[in-house]
Records
---
Amino acid sequence: MSSTTERNEKKPLAILTEDPVSWKGQSLVSVAQITPKGFELLVTISQQMRDIVRSEGGDDRLKHKVLATIFYEASTRTSCSFQAAMSRLGGTFIHVDGQGNSSAAKKKESLEDTIKCLECYVDAIVLRHPETGSVPKVVLSTTKPVLNAGDGIGEHPTQALLDSFTIWDELKDDPKIVVFLGDLKHGRTVHSLAKLLSQLRPQSKLILRFCSPQILSIPDSILEYCKNNGVQYEIFEDATKACQDAQILYVTRIQKERFETEEAYESVKGCYVVDNALMDKVPKNMIVLHPLPRVDEIATEVDADPRAAYFRQMENGMYVRMAILALVLGKSSP
Amino acid sequence: MSSTTERNEKKPLAILTEDPVSWKGQSLVSVAQITPKGFELLVTISQQMRDIVRSEGGDDRLKHKVLATIFYEASTRTSCSFQAAMSRLGGTFIHVDGQGNSSAAKKKESLEDTIKCLECYVDAIVLRHPETGSVPKVVLSTTKPVLNAGDGIGEHPTQALLDSFTIWDELKDDPKIVVFLGDLKHGRTVHSLAKLLSQLRPQSKLILRFCSPQILSIPDSILEYCKNNGVQYEIFEDATKACQDAQILYVTRIQKERFETEEAYESVKGCYVVDNALMDKVPKNMIVLHPLPRVDEIATEVDADPRAAYFRQMENGMYVRMAILALVLGKSSP
Amino acid sequence: MSSTTERNEKKPLAILTEDPVSWKGQSLVSVAQITPKGFELLVTISQQMRDIVRSEGGDDRLKHKVLATIFYEASTRTSCSFQAAMSRLGGTFIHVDGQGNSSAAKKKESLEDTIKCLECYVDAIVLRHPETGSVPKVVLSTTKPVLNAGDGIGEHPTQALLDSFTIWDELKDDPKIVVFLGDLKHGRTVHSLAKLLSQLRPQSKLILRFCSPQILSIPDSILEYCKNNGVQYEIFEDATKACQDAQILYVTRIQKERFETEEAYESVKGCYVVDNALMDKVPKNMIVLHPLPRVDEIATEVDADPRAAYFRQMENGMYVRMAILALVLGKSSP
């Protein structure tokens, strides 16, 4: 958390541990706040949430609590899963669309003032903003928990946490080989997940494999982060080879607009379509994840494969967010 | 349901009968799913809903249930009545505006994927989409009930059902003569209601009268549908004559933009304004319906006439949607 | 209420008194409806609401009640505080964005019809509309309570009420000297608050001071209103002098676009920045209010001053709106 030194001097971000009290009233800005034992707590409560939703639909532990979801950038999946999570725990939400027509957008109020007003009305705030660093900055002047739902190319901690939850939940064990496939240069979710895995299992036998065309390869800073945490990494260009003995394949979209020429794009896109042909060549129990939305990097024919876990991953997003809301609002038990 | 043959081979749409179990967990895509006895069940439960709302405001039978309302086209009335319906039964909703700024709109995700993600979070989905056939197509790949809130010029079953409910509720008896007035060529609600009435009372003494300028006359396919169901129809151009002995007058808007010339529009618009002068000439107990919004085809002076039932019809929309939500979520009793 | 003569002939606006029954089922269109004793009732219930929120988060007195918030003009603060207020009392809300993409906006339905439809679904309506006089006009044809959330340069009664509530709540006594600072020509909140204070304490020792550059001075009609109510007023241009012996400083934004020349703007903006330097020169217990959003007329350094009450004022907005909703929905007691 070197970049947060200045912030820490003013108002340190809480370290979130296996003690639920350490979460209560705290903001979640970065996965760096989560200890390995804290993650285990989150996994346990998320699984409890799934049981509750499947048996009863929800409970009333957040009754009379109000959440604000404020999105300065659209993200249907993230906003809807937080809103459903809050609803299923008996709470309510108000939504602010910070784009376009909102008065927040029009009246040039500072982000700090907008959030300080909203926290007069609600018990917690989910904030997404396109500007990197905006969410940690806002947290300096708030008194209610703020949950970072993505700040530009900064952090999106609940996404990394739901990805990690899904890995442990699917494997029922520590992962040994995790493959990241696609545009590893620009994909924020890849960076966050690689860092979080390194942080959760430092000095372990975990191997992270990064498979991409050279021009979209993983930044050195991420490799450095792995190394510093004692986690091995390997670089691949061939998807089939990368998947050998792997338990997890994490696919991201290759965005055509990132390429300088049409030819460059055409030269690589073919090898990175996960279809039944590829699935035939990879381990029989290798789980496929994707943060979604996908365009065509996973063929819809794969959806019926039991190894395709990306819709289960979506669903887990709600359970993990229910757990986080329950924890920061001091209601980890019903 | 000839157009659904392909769908039916894969995943037949449920036939919705007088047995509440036949509704549970099912999608409502087309009025063709509803049997005459199924409609009677819906009428009974909708009336119960009205009693509950008027005495208590609502109940808690859908507690911990979450509805998604996703609208790729604006429809304030339809979305609000579904949202209020869900709220009054103790459930909650999340809303996705599929237009403009939404990420669904921006990221080019397929409609199927968007809906498959949303159903990870919620118990049922209300979907409106401008593309005809989009909703039945989506239903093929979903596991949660999807309620069609309009797919282009396709179907809008809850509108036809609330229109029919209002007819029976106002008359306390089967209608004998129903008049459709206005633009019968383009009006989706007219087509759906005419088909539903034919289907609910086939081989009956029901007479459907279609009154419009020739250039806006009812399509032959609808007349064919009536004929095949053994329902009589009559064609009119004069509103007063059409209303003779009628119990129901269903008015729709004549949209100026449908006419090729200003003169063509001017030539007909006059005869189709329902005002007090017209109301003086029609049966003393003839009920006036309109799907709303109106522009000027019903003068506001008519609102005070006890025969003007279009705002009661609006209100019924909520009760019918409450009944549908309760049925598909398996809670037809509190 | 001279401008409401025509309305009163048709459907008089209720006078809202110390008897909760006088509020039940009534619309709140104008502060002119509120008697001094009615305001005392509102203060008492608002304070109760604060206690409830701080101890329990809310209660269930509005369970199964549904509120519609319909905004033809964005106002994040007003809509969010009403929505949170409704939620905290156990009710729910549906929101209609009357701008841009809404069908209300597209289909040219009259405002009266839109509201008449919405009231079929809900128990009360919060309405904001840019056109002055639109809300009182709509109230003529509705049967459910309509709460005016701002009609152009007309009224915004809940703002004036929360401002007044904050004054009494902060002072625990009647104010003796209230200073209005900034653009007093265009500021609707200043006009409403000045009128409300005059109405609440007519023939009293209350002094209202209006401090602005000459080109942005308070309209004569407001001064007339004070005079007719036996309330003294004084005109200032110097902020420090205006604040002498004052208990309340109500700051509003000076909008650059109101000035004819850049020079005119530059000539005055300096004197009206409330910063620590100014705060050093004013009374030690003078409370600073602002309707927010601010741009730079109050320096953020002032936020930490205990006299800066504008965020408490925001928070009070929710309590006052909870009290109003409870009163008009007949649930002033839990």
---
Amino acid sequence: MKDAQTNQDQSIEEMMNGIGAAAKAASAELAFASAERKHAALIGAAEAVWSARREIIAANEQDLAYGTEKGLSPAMMDRLKLDEERIRGIVDSLRAIAEQKDPVGEVIAEWEQPTGLKIRRVRTPLGVIGVIYESRPNVTADAGALCLKAGNAVILRGGSESFHSSRAIHACLLEGLRSAGLPEAAIQLVPTRDREAVSAMLKAVDYIDVIVPRGGKGLVGLVQREARVPVFAHLEGIVHIYIDKAADPQKALDVVLNAKTRRTGICGAVECLLIHEDVVKTIGQGVLRALVDKGVEVRGDKTLAQIPGVVAATEEDWGKEYLDSIVAAKVVADVDEAIAHIRQYSSSHTEGVVTEDASVAERFFQRIDSAILMWNASTQFADGGEFGMGAEIGIATGKMHARGPVGAEQLTSFKYLVVGDGTTRA
Amino acid sequence: MKDAQTNQDQSIEEMMNGIGAAAKAASAELAFASAERKHAALIGAAEAVWSARREIIAANEQDLAYGTEKGLSPAMMDRLKLDEERIRGIVDSLRAIAEQKDPVGEVIAEWEQPTGLKIRRVRTPLGVIGVIYESRPNVTADAGALCLKAGNAVILRGGSESFHSSRAIHACLLEGLRSAGLPEAAIQLVPTRDREAVSAMLKAVDYIDVIVPRGGKGLVGLVQREARVPVFAHLEGIVHIYIDKAADPQKALDVVLNAKTRRTGICGAVECLLIHEDVVKTIGQGVLRALVDKGVEVRGDKTLAQIPGVVAATEEDWGKEYLDSIVAAKVVADVDEAIAHIRQYSSSHTEGVVTEDASVAERFFQRIDSAILMWNASTQFADGGEFGMGAEIGIATGKMHARGPVGAEQLTSFKYLVVGDGTTRA
């Protein structure tokens, strides 16, 4: 039994090493593939997905049957399901990525030195990206396409629930690569449900440059804990909004209602309101009552729990990500107390301030180091598309390399190109 | 015995956790410290170093005595030694860093979305930087100052040989911080020679954002292998220069002689020449003979070993970093063979091409992914100062975050500041 286990592990390891070596070789070619060729591959893939929609739906039915057998929740079954409309969405998304600006080769900076050297800093691909995701099969297309756009080879490891759907979509991506004359190893899908493959990816410092986990807290936490390879991710979006005493009442109402109720399950949804003590009975009460009227469970501190409809919060409510129709609320003495609370409890994703006082907003912007800070705007704007950065592979809260929305440009590195004329150093 | 060991490890771990927590707290304050205050701290430190030069030299004498006792090599003793001239160098370097542009708060990009949102991407400090270095005591001042300039707290772990010198210099940095009203924990020096402190730093994902090793291959290799924290470093500088058939003979001679002989011990010194077969008997022979005349040991492949003065290379000479007056040399059929050789053997630090043919240079620039590529220029220019980027903490060959010379700007991250007017998402 032990030997069989060892042999199986070895073969997964060998398989992953083979995938890694192929990805590395492909990435060397992709690094100088023209923008036109990558564009053609993505358009080809979009066409192939649309042509193969019946096969994809048939593959998806296999996954749905497996999901029913495994007793997946209705929400997970819904995430898994593909129909013609959702496949149209995948096609549109592939086309949108195809039409985005190609970041590779962009001159980021250019200058001349007194020695006569001309120096350019140009954008290059990162190399090989590993994407580990859960049930949504569209990630196969989106992540594969975005990595290719930035000239990277990608190793995709989808959830076991979407195994057949991902395989069918991946076949279309390969068709796009072939039609454009790009190496098929540019986009590889790990062909096993074995979890050993994930462990191998997390350790693969020799062939993966960065890992992007796409999924719930369980997956992201596992990846952040175990990866030896750098990771672009956020574990949680514990988003705060501070309502200052100088807030405009209407803006406070609009921003908070939108930030909580537009969609409660996204990482930019607000989870905690901090209200200046001077405006508790005016703006604060108005905002909280409007939330209660919208069916939101408001968990307030001692003072706020006295407002009709508000329930009492416990210590566990501070720093909690509900991803649901629930919000915590707390009174603070001033912007500094709000900043201190956010520093203690935030996940460094996105925070907002509502105020007409520019000096308060400035202090909030300066003293909080979350990836995204919003002034008089809904935190639900925390999204690569809304930032005008195109498709995103996720939002990162780390401080290294990529931060905030991670789009094609953030999936690149750079190199220095230096031109002299026989120039030597003194 | 075992208990004593455990207790000692625990106390080092506790000490390092205390240093880490203090650094993190200081970094939160430094993040919004004004440029003026950081400037004042650095000028104050420069003045303190000059005033304390006699104490520093006395401390250095203790280190030199310890070094003699330990039997350090003359080269290491020289690196360790401080005199008034070298202290003047430290003072000048502190002043130069003080006068550099402050990168924090710089608006990297700014745009407006159709929703009315105004988005700024602004530079922020990385947080806490750990610097692990060997015998040169001036690194204490340089690294401490550069991290502070970029708004980072720094934890310095100097070599055991320079223990007293580093302590004396560190005391002056603290004087600068105090005089400017900045927290002393902004620049901490690990107050023990115990190697456990290094291990603790390498694992300290909770309080160190990036580790910079400064030293030889042994130290850098250890850090790259063992660190859980991201690392900015290069392990080796295996620098290649390709002399194309369209090379200008004089430029080839000037560039190669400078790249090899100006200083042989720096990471930008060329270690391997690749010569186009068509110019072996003309440019190639001229360059190699000039190197031999300068006392360089040239180790050539079969063809080149026939040139008088050139010795035969072995397989081990390809991909070798000599850091000495030795160079490998090989004939290649064309630029593609040169590129293939470099891809196989380079350490992705710096490579050069000498040619008058722009298409050859373009191909070399596109298809090689080293951090720095030089065309008709000496590879010894691979240096933050020569790039006009100010003081550098080192050169990085990784693809994540910082690459090439790592100066103050490369020691920063960024965040997004978004301004609306009660703006909500549809």
